[in-house]
Amino acid sequence: MTQVNLMHIDILTIFPDFFTSIFATSILQRAVANNLVRLNTVNIRDFAYDKHKIVDDYPYGGGAGMVMKPEPIGRAIVATKAASANPRVIYMSPQGQVLTQQKAVQLSSLEHLIILCGHYEGVDERVSTLYVDEEISIGDFVLTGGELPAAVLVDCVVRLLPGVLGSAESAAQDSFSDGLLEHPHYTRPPEFMGQMVPEILLSGHHGNIARWRRQESLRRTWERRPDLLAKVRLSEADYAFLDRLRRSQERF
User: Fold this and answer.
1) What is the distance in angstroms between the CA of the first residue and the CA of the last residue of the chain?
2) The one catalytic residue among 174, 178, 182, 238
3) Is the peptide bond before 184 cis (omega within 30 degrees of 0)?
4) How does pLDDT run across 131-152, given as a tens digit for each residue?
5) Is 174 a catalytic site residue?
6) Is 213 a catalytic residue?
7) For this structure, is 159 an active site residue?
8) Scanning 28, 73, 118, 168, which has the fewest C-beta atoms within 10 Å of its C-beta?
9) 121 an active-site residue?
């Protein structure tokens, strides 16, 4: 039997209760129960020096908001890194590299992730300089803290671990897995509110169904995210189908 490595993910946050229901739900809960991943929260306040557990202070140079202090975060990271030989520290930041499916695949091959959640105006820059391996964003917008982005990253990575999904094919066919948006999905009943399931999906012809799904994936990407097509390796059949789409649009 193939040995499956247990992935360990620590989330450093000042709101550990935020993740309680997330970790106890759906795929993440099953992954933990099946011993495929260990999800843990670390309260940064536990590493503060003072009795009031203060983790923020006013920014040097003035300005609005507060900045998370470097000492509690640094101590939390050092203590958490001791759990493994080669952890990767990720800071969820709007200034980071935007999360992609390809990045999630890369991270899913690691054994230990430490995810830092910022808050207020962010963390002292020296934290990033001294302790962080990379910064990741989930999009070009600003949230109150890093907890929601961290939850998104955890879900995105964990579902890629071997054995987490019911079928490895499920992850392989997800949108962005091959650079394209995913094809439409249908289930029973065959007719709903006058809308029919495409006949080809009822045909049982696996080759035709695979071709239809590929073409619908191309069509959806071309209509909704044409920028993605420049990054995808396409076959001659793909190019021919896209050319037909373009010519059909030009006629109208």
Assistant:
1) 58
2) 174
3) no
4) 999 999 999 999 999 999 999 9
5) yes
6) no
7) yes
8) 168
9) yes
